[in-house]
Write a structure and sequence with these properties.
845 residues; Immunoglobulin-like; 8 domains; five-stranded mixed β-sheet; 2 helices; 70 strands; 44% strand; flat
Length: 845
């Protein structure tokens, strides 16, 4: 509500006082006279829409104002300035119609009055401009637009040239004008005229004082504003409906010039909006984003840039839903806290009766309950939702699907329960070491009748439970005493407590370790749920997860078992700050005939009893136990092998994977298997293998750290040191990798002795052809991730290169260890490699 604000004329009353009072008496105060002032000082109109003000003229008792056309003369407000202590009526700040004079009365303080007549007239605009013109048949893309026209003199003719596509029928064009406010145009806008010749329009201002003539000429043009030829694309790409309430989308199918869509509840077919995809620079009418009724087909027109058109008929049909479920029910008088809620009901067959039971407080008046239902979209329910009914007996509801094909009956039964929601208070640490048959105690927030209490012990995964015997109910402290089963497996459990059909609580998890020990899985010795696939029964250290009473830990012993034979595990202990138990395999080879396999079991012995479990990892996969045996070699994948190639040593017991090793384990187990080979002249090579394939064969890569083009006899030394080196009857020939250049070869390579008189520790390489046209980049050690020698001199005359003095490491690898090297060079923009072994020079060369 607006506050009336008056500006008042202030009058000053000057009261004179005598200087002397010769009688000495207190004079009587003069009587206060009421003011008769009732002058209207200002009268100002205000337009809320534009924020403009207009001051009226006051002459005698007449107020006059001539206002702009933007002011709404039928809803004007005003502010005034009147004499102090005077009032005005009616209230000028209220919106008022001034099409006829309005009389205002000003009443002075003494009650005398003065009337003022307010006369408002509207100033007629004097503009006669055409701001915009286009034709309905062509669209707004081709238009005349002049938002700020220059001042046109009366009777001056203005030319308007409007371009239209060449295919336009100019004999029938309907004009759409935007002209000055209040002005008139002749011929009238909206008429369909022939524009084969120029058409003259006359625009007259509202006050009739300004008349301007406009000549409209239509010309053909197939180019757009950028001077490019307009296109004729008008294909409808996509048409998608959208439901604002649910946020759902539904794509329509477009075939030829027909668009079809099948929608279901909750889409409102009478108020659908849509999004479309149309060609660039094309337009569509009407606007599909506006809500529209599609109960009958709607025709959309797409206009291409060149003005050509295509019509699409959109046909929408509604698919009725066939579900008849009750998802939620509560009563207004009780509230949502006591409700039936089933967001994913199972599929109900026709005529199957479903029971719904709702528990209400004991004080509820069940003779007058008002139902609030949430049912399937489009479905109906009888009796209707929202009715107030008597539920002292079960009430049957029938729900019918939207399509009428599915009818389900629901029986709603109301039962009393005046108990609050149950909650539990437990101290799991107090339960940890309670033995089988022992007592555990927990608190509750509420206690019903004792015979209504049900307590079960539930496994952590919830897959199994066992009812517990209630030994005592402490009503004063609200505590329940229950007996544990006479036997149980150690592990993680929960308590499930029920005091009514729909009033129960599940406790937090707690540990029970006073029962039978349980093995869960094997892991690494660092603990944590780390997947472990194998175990070497020799010097390996590993971890297990098991539920075991820590107080009696020393009474437990651990084994792995197969075919009735037990293999002991040593040095059992808990990992630091962890529940992981660390175990160790013996340091000595086991005296057993058992074979490697995944069929071992894990055994815990405790107080004269034995507990056996599958030996698995944390994924419940069998763990493979390796029983060390001497290596056996049956053959090789090839007897002639190139350095850098893969060689497979066939046989068994060739390499044993293992995890972390116990103290002293590194003296028993290596991290690799060594394949040692000797030549008749005692040249020695050593190949390292760490990988076995699915058949138990050893897979390795032939290294570059020995002399090639030589035959070697194979010896094997598995990663279990106790078996020592085993000689095999197999001989292999090791060859250099093939040169990559078609003709260039190394003719001779020699490394000079460290005591050589002239070429100490230098390497010379001679080629079989002219090296003046090739770019020799380096001599490379492939064994050491391409370490290089780059300090050498090229002797083109002798087709040789000579290095400087090699460092200690390079000299050792080339002279003593006979490493294979290769020369890397470039020719014709391509790199090539030539592999070689250098012969050893004599001491005094």
């Amino acid at each position: 509500m607006k506050k009336l604000q008056y500006l008042v004329l202030m009058t000053l009353l000057v009261i004179g006082c005598g200087k002397d009072n010769p009688t000495g008496e207190i004079p009587n105060e003069p009587e206060q006279k009421l003011s008769s002032q009732k002058i209207l000082g200002d009268f100002t109109f205000f337009d809320e829409a534009t924020g403009k003000k207009h001051n009226a003229e006051i002459k005698d008792n007449v107020v006059t104002a001539v206002i702009e056309t933007s002011f709404d003369i039928k809803a004007l407000t005003a502010t005034v300035r009147i004499s102090d202590k005077a009032t005005i009526s009616p209230d000028p700040i209220q919106k008022r119609d001034y099409t006829n004079p309005v009389i205002y009365t000003i009443t002075a303080e003494d009650g005398t009055k003065a009337e003022y007549k307010v006369i408002v007239t509207k100033q007629l605009p004097s503009e006669s401009n055409i701001y915009r013109l286009h034709f309905k048949e062509v669209g707004e893309l081709h238009n005349y637009h002049n938002q700020n026209p220059s001042l046109n003199q009366p009777n001056k003719n203005i030319d308007i040239r409007l371009k239209v596509p060449s295919k336009t029928d100019v004999t029938k064009l309907t004009s759409v004008f935007e002209i000055s406010e209040g002005a008139t145009i002749h011929p009238k806008a909206g008429q369909t005229l022939d524009y084969t010749k120029p058409v003259e329009y006359t625009v007259t201002s509202k006050d009739g004082k300004k008349v301007v003539k406009y000549t409209v000429t239509v010309v053909f043009d197939d180019t757009n504003e950028s001077g490019q030829k307009t296109n004729s694309h008008k294909l409808l790409g996509d048409f998608t409906f959208f439901d604002e309430v649910t946020g759902k989308w539904r794509n329509a199918e477009i075939k030829d010039n027909e668009v079809t869509a099948v929608i279901e509840t909750p889409f409102d077919i009478k108020a659908l909006t849509a999004t479309v995809r149309i060609p660039d620079k094309a337009t569509i009418s009407p606007d599909p984003t506006q809500k529209r009724d599609y109960t009958t087909p709607v025709v959309y027109t797409i206009t291409a840039e060149d003005g050509t058109k295509a019509e699409y008929k959109v046909i929408v049909t509604k698919r009725l839903l066939s579900e008849s479920n009750i998802y939620r029910l509560h009563f207004k008088e009780v509230g949502k806290s006591r409700d039936h809620y089933n967001p994913h009901p199972s599929l109900n067959q026709h005529d199957k009766n479903a029971d719904i039971r709702i528990v209400v407080p004991l004080t509820t008046d069940v003779t007058k309950l008002t139902s609030v239902f949430e049912i399937s979209e489009g479905a109906t329910i009888h009796p209707k939702a929202g009715q107030t009914l008597d539920y002292t007996k079960p009430v049957e509801y029938t729900v019918t699907s939207e399509d009428g094909k599915t009818v389900l009956k629901y029986t709603v039964t109301v039962i009393f329960d005046d108990l609050p929601k149950l909650s539990l208070s437990i101290n799991g640490e107090e339960f940890r070491n309670v033995p089988p048959g022992g007592t555990i105690v927990f608190g509750v927030n509420v206690l019903p009748k004792h015979e209504d209490i049900r307590v079960s012990l539930v496994t952590e995964d919830g897959k199994s439970s066992v009812p517990l015997t209630i030994q005592k109910v402490d009503d004063t402290n609200k505590k329940i005493h229950v007996k544990l089963p006479d036997t149980y497996l150690n592990g993680i459990y929960k308590l499930d407590v029920r005091i009514a059909e729909n009033n129960s609580a599940m406790s937090y998890t707690f540990v029970l370790h006073g029962g039978n020990p349980v093995f869960h899985y094997i892991t690494s010795n660092g603990g944590g749920p780390k997947k472990t696939n194998s175990l070497l029964y020799l010097a390996e250290q590993f971890g297990i997860f098991a539920s075991i009473n820590r107080k009696d830990f020393a009474k437990h012993s651990f084994f792995i078992k197969k075919n009735g034979e037990y293999l002991p595990l040593e040095n059992a202990r808990f990992h630091t700050n962890s529940t992981t138990i660390i175990l160790e395999a013996p340091l000595e080879l086991p005296n057993t005939s058992l074979e490697t396999g995944t069929d071992f079991e894990f055994v815990i012995r405790y107080e004269g009893k034995e507990y056996t479990y599958p030996l698995v990892n944390n994924k419940k996969e069998p763990v493979k136990v390796y029983i060390p045996k001497p290596p056996v070699v049956t053959g090789v994948s090839k007897t002639s092998v190139t350095q850098g190639e893969t060689l497979v040593i066939k046989g068994s017991n060739l390499f044993y994977p293992h995890g972390d090793l116990r103290d002293g384990g590194r003296d028993k187990i290596n991290h690799y298997t060594a394949i040692r080979s000797r030549t008749p002249s005692k040249e020695l090579i050593s190949m390292i293998g760490k990988e076995i394939d699915a058949q138990g064969n050893l897979v390795l890569t032939v290294p570059f750290n020995f002399l090639a083009e030589t035959e070697y006899k194979l010896f094997i030394d598995s990663n279990v040191d106790s078996f020592g080196e085993v000689e095999t009857p197999i001989t292999i020939k090791v060859e250099l990798p093939k040169p990559t250049h078609p003709t260039m070869r190394i003719q001779e390579a020699e490394v000079y002795h460290e005591n050589s008189k002239y070429f100490k520790k230098q390497l010379r390489v001679k080629f079989n052809g002219d090296i003046s046209k090739i770019n020799i980049k380096a001599i490379v050690f492939p064994e050491y991730q391409n370490a290089k020698i780059t300090n050498f001199i090229v002797y083109e005359g002798s087709n040789s290169i000579m290095t400087g003095e090699l460092n200690f490491w390079d000299y050792r690898d080339v002279y003593t260890r006979r490493h294979t090297l290769y020369v890397l060079f470039e020719e014709g923009g391509k790199e090539y490699k030539l592999y070689f072994n250098a012969k050893r020079g004599e001491q005094n060369d």
